[in-house]
Write a structure and sequence with these properties.
The complex is a heterodimer of chains A (about 290) and B (about 80).
Chain A: H1 4-10, H2 37-50, E1 58-62, H3 70-73, E2 77-80, H4 86-96, E3 101-107, H5 108-114, H6 116-125, E4 130-135, H7 170-177, E5 181-186, H8 190-202, E6 207-212, H9 216-222, H10 228-238, E7 239-241, E8 258-265, H11 271-283
Parallel strand pairs in A: 1-2, 1-3, 3-4, 4-6, 5-6, 7-8
Antiparallel strand pairs in A: 5-8
Helix pairs in contact in A: 2-8, 5-6
Chain B: E1 4-10, H1 20-24, E2 30-36, E3 42-46, H2 57-61, E4 67-74
Antiparallel strand pairs in B: 1-4, 2-3
The chains are: A alpha/beta (about 290), B mainly beta (about 80).
Chain lengths: ~290, ~80
């Protein structure tokens, strides 16, 4: 093993390749040992590097929560919005400056409970943005309350004897609302996550990537599932890759099989294209198509 | 079979001892050492430098950006 001090002198690659995309002055981050959010950030940073985008034209928007902290740790134009309002802010950003690549990076509670409406309407309108949802199946930052994604019978602080709320099936919700790209992976599938994020960013229209992540401090501890590593091993053994699977069939049970893969990849007209087409039909020559 | 020699750099201060890198190293070149960092987490280390292929998977898994691997030379 090379020590950091000697390595800096001898080896040209002494710097972690993703460090240029991170605000290293803010490290170490607040995520618990065994949490998967850091790994998803790692994958996202690599996906951005590989997609060779102009980083001045990438903006990242987060809501509130553990995953909401991502916007503060990435060395990009970023905004940390109020709770659940990441997608409305991102929609405005995209409409005002269509050249930007917008990535909404947030958690399941923020995107589907507090901001649930915004998600379905952005997908319906097909606003050109990428939504990355790190799904840890619980409200992490506020202390382990049951979230809209918590599987039935899983315990949380608000359901000490197990939840009986039927959870959301996120890929199905995104698919039926009209998202053009829908994929689900777990934190164990790092290469797939990187590829999926790359594809989602390149996709024109609303794209959605769900990443299942361990929450060792709340979800795993309350349900006696071990630490983050045990959850990762569980993902390894119990994930089934089914690309193109019917999103109706991919709901999650408590500690059941996790169906992962790229479920939907289709082209629809984006919100701006629809607006330009419609108004050109109505006003003819008088209307100048909006290009930003 | 092995054509390249790799190594890893570990930033001990950033590590939180989650052992993702140790578990998912394809050649089992890492283990959790008996050394502790300032925060009291056990940090990983290379058991056998010859086993490392520099694939960089440890760096991709690391949630704390504390480890990364790379190729140092080609082996005939």
């Amino acid at each position: 093993m090379l020590d950091q001090q000697t390595a800096e002198i001898e080896v040209p690659e002494a710097q972690n390749p993703v460090e240029s995309l991170l605000r290293m002055d803010r490290m170490p981050h607040i995520w618990c040992p065994g949490c998967g959010i850091g790994t998803t950030v790692n994958c996202f940073a690599r996906a951005l590097e590989q997609s060779k985008l102009d980083l001045d034209k990438v903006a990242i928007v987060s809501g509130i929560g553990c995953t909401g902290r991502v916007a503060g740790y990435l060395n990009l134009d970023s905004f940390h919005t109020t709770h659940g309002r990441a997608i409305p802010f991102a929609t405005g950003l995209k409409l005002a400056n269509p050249d930007l690549k917008i990535v909404v990076y947030s958690g399941d509670g923020d995107l589907f409970a507090i901001g649930g409406n915004h998600f379905i309407h952005a997908a319906r309108r097909n606003v050109d943005m990428t939504v990355i949802c790190v799904n840890n199946l619980i409200y992490g930052m506020t202390g382990g309350q049951v979230a809209p994604t918590t599987p039935v019978t899983a315990k949380g602080t608000t359901y000490p004897y197990g939840s009986y709320d039927p959870p959301f099936n996120l890929p199905y919700l995104a698919d039926s609302s009209g998202a053009g790209y829908v994929a689900r992976w777990t934190v164990y599938h790092v290469r797939h996550v990187t590829k999926a994020i790359k594809e989602a960013i390149a996709h024109r229209g609303f794209s959605f990537v769900e990443i299942i992540s361990p929450c060792p401090t709340l979800y795993s501890r309350r349900n006696r599932l071990g630490d983050g590593l045990d959850q990762m091993k569980f993902y390894k053994e119990n994930s089934e890759i089914k690309n193109g699977a019917d999103t109706k069939e991919v709901g999650m049970d408590f500690q059941g099989k996790i169906i992962v893969g790229k479920f939907v990849d289709r082209e629809r007209k984006t919100y701006r294209q629809l607006m330009n087409e419609h108004l050109s039909n109505v006003f003819g020559e008088q209307f100048t198509p909006y290009e930003g | 079979m092995k054509k390249v020699q790799g190594t890893v750099i570990i930033k001990a201060d950033s590590c939180k001892g989650c052992a993702f890198c140790v578990e998912f190293c394809p050649t089992d070149a890492l283990h959790l050492s008996d050394r502790y960092n300032a925060k009291g987490y056990r940090i990983p280390e290379l058991i056998d430098e010859a086993k490392c292929t520099g694939c960089g998977l440890c760096g991709l898994y690391c949630p704390d950006f504390a480890i990364h691997g790379f190729i140092i030379k080609k082996v005939a």
